[in-house]
Each structure stands twice: as structure tokens, then as C-alpha cells.
Amino acid sequence: METEYQGYFDHDKLDKIIYNLLSNAAKYTTENKTITITQAYHREQNLFQISISNPGEPIPESKLKHLFERFYEGEYRKFHTIGTGIGLSLTKDLTLLHHGQIKVESDKENGNTFTVLIPINKEAYSKEEIDEENKSHETIESNIPQETTDHSSANAIQTFPTHNANKEKPSLLLVEDNDDLRNVMRRILTDHFDLTEASCGKTALLQLEDKNIDIIVSDVMMPGMNGFELCKKIKEKFETKHIPVILLTAKTSDMDRIEGYEAGADGYICKPLNISVLLAKIDNLLKKSESHNGNSKKQLIFEAKHVDYTSQDEEFLKKAVECVNAHLSDVDFDTLTFVKEMQMSRSTLNEKLKQLTDMTPLAFISSIRLQAAFRLLEEKKKIRVSELAYSVGFNDPKYFSQCFKKKFGFLPKEYTTNKEYDKE
């Protein structure tokens, strides 16, 4: 007899937990052997249980307590059947995020059994974790014939930092040479990010040339170009230096940390990896990046000579502003001329202006010209609208007036009239 039970759980996270445990079991089960999956519901504790067992060499008692902490390191991982890799570490993180627990039992008679217990009652989760609008009605079926009086609606549980659903997913570049680790992390990260992958530093640099990336997560120990070297190259290049970089490494000494930060890393996370810590760090860096960009837009000053520039971004803005100001009255000064004067490709100029000012090159030129027109209105007692338009590079006074009103909320003529009225 089968009884259907409904409860609160995150079906996506549960899917990942089961997938990782099955992958681990399949990898270390020999041919013609059987993997067993069992499930149960503990009514008194409101706990759903799933167990996955596979025959194979038992795990030594001394290794069991470290099993979920290991990160593909140690001689045991290399020469024995049972792996102690990232998959189990991430599985534990997912289980803990679900307010559950995971345990393992190992002996010669029964093989190796991994058991996950997660609460499915509403009271186990905070209001912030429950999405009442997602009535997915996922069900948990138990082969234990018990009755229940509480058939709560199944709802999605929000366990990870989330971004505005109306916005596109942030783009993340994952650089990792270990295929197994990269596959596991892909399943975790693709829910939250537009993921791009690279198996080495050289490939990562090529990916950065072709795609707009918001944040980079890279392993340190890689053949060829290691993570420190990759980070240094990213931070030395003007087009990519603004992208936050998080380094993942088993090297935990103070000198290793110093080397990471000297390379320009924005975050340094030691293995064994805690996925919730990684996601929180990514979320924090993305928010800082958005805030920085927002402040850059607000603080964009067109009279560059009055600002003390120190960073490369500020130097870029200074050069861009001075370039437009030098051609302020030139009606033929357009985007192509701007690109040529800045001595960079059109795509690079467009990307940097978009990142720092949220403007296209054409909008940037227009904004500087309108700011200059506003200053002229303040400085001169009387000036004709046509004269004002021509002096800042507009060849159509009517179009100039429309643009001016759109930016400042009033027509140039209205501002002049108000000035005269204020003086009376």
C-alpha cells in the first residue's frame, strides 16, 4: 500500500541531492552490482528520508567523519574505490540548507549507505524561505502505510540568494580543470547564473574576449596558467579589470592568501568548499559591483579638470569627457570619430561606457553637450536658443530643445525667461 504525503520542500535542491548521491554510487559500483534506493516518511518528526546504498569496498572508520569535508584530495581518493570528492561536500551543504541532515554507514555486509533526512513541515522554514505563490504540489510517496491529517501544500523553498526575477541572470565564468567538480558545480550554479565554463586559464581569457561576464570563480591549482596568474592577467587588462574574481583553493596558509590578494582577487575561499559561503560571496560582490557602477553614473562629472582621478576607470572617463569637450561645437563629431579619437575598438568603448555610465557612446556625447548647454545658460545673461544649440554641436535648434527638456525637464527658453524674471 502506498500513501501520498504532501509537504514543503525545494524539489530542485532535492533533485540535486539525489543526483549527486546516485552519481557517487554509480561511479564506485562495479558491473552487475545493484544500487538500492529507499524512501520513508517519519510522521512524528515530519522528516522525509531517502537512502542510497551501493555495494563496494567499505570506507574506513577513520575516514567516515571526514568524508563530507574532503575535496578530491589525499591518497585514499586516488587509490580506493570510494571517492571523497566535491559532490559529497556539496550534497551536505544542500542538505543543511534544507535544514536537514546527512549520514553514512559502511560495512562489508551492507556496503555503503548514504541517508538524507529533510523536514517537510511548514514550521521548519522561515517566511523568507517559503514561496507561497509556487503551488507546484510536489508530492512525496512513502511505501509505509501510515495515515496523516496534515496535507500541507507543497511549496518551493528559497535556500540560496536570489536576484530580481525581472532582470537577466548575472553571467558567471567558472574556471575549473577537474571535469567531475565542474559538472557538479554546473548543476548548482546554472539555477542562479548564466554560466560560462573554461577548463583552463587560457580558455578563460578567450571566453572573456567574446562574452560579457559579471563575475569569475576560478580554481587556483590548474595546469599551465594557475588561478593566481589568471587573476593577475584579468586585473591588468583594462577591459576586464572591473570583473570581480573569486579564487578557490586548498592552499590555506597566510602566504597563499597574500599571493591571491596581491594578484587582485576580490574573494579567496578555501577548500573544503562550502557552497552556501560561495553563493553568499558571489551575491555580495555582485551587489558591490552594482553599487559601484551606480555611484559612477551619479558621480560622472563632465568638467574632468575639477576631479582628482586615480583609477583606470576614472582616467578612461576623463579621457572620454575631454575628447567630447574638444569637439563640442563640431556637428560632425559622431560615434565613429569618437572611437577613433579614443584609440580603441567600438565594442570596447561601448562596453566600458555602458558599464560605467549606462550610456551608449552616442548618448554619452549628447549628455555632455547638454550639460555644457546648461552651464552656458547659467553663465550668460542672454543667449538665443539657436546659438546655444550650435555652440554645443546640435545643427537643429528644435531637436536640441526637445533633448534639453527630456534631460532637464524644461525648455532652454523657459530657463532663460525664469532667470530674467528672478532678477526683477
From TrEMBL:
It is an enzyme of class 2 (transferase). Residues 318-418 form the HTH araC/xylS-type domain. This is histidine kinase. CDD domains: REC_OmpR. Residues 171-286 form the Response regulatory domain. Its EC number is 2.7.13.3. It catalyses: ATP + protein L-histidine = ADP + protein N-phospho-L-histidine. Residues 10-122 form the Histidine kinase domain. Keywords: Phosphoprotein, Transcription, Transcription regulation. It comes from the Bacteria. The modification 4-aspartylphosphate is found at residue 219. InterPro entries: CheY-like_superfamily, HATPase_C_sf, HATPase_dom, His_kinase_dom, Homeodomain-like_sf, HTH_AraC, Sig_transdc_His_kin-like_C, Sig_transdc_resp-reg_receiver. The lineage of its organism: Bacteria, Pseudomonadati, Bacteroidota, Bacteroidia, Bacteroidales. Pfam families: HATPase_c, HTH_18, Response_reg. PANTHER family: HYBRID SIGNAL TRANSDUCTION HISTIDINE KINASE C, TWO-COMPONENT HISTIDINE KINASE.
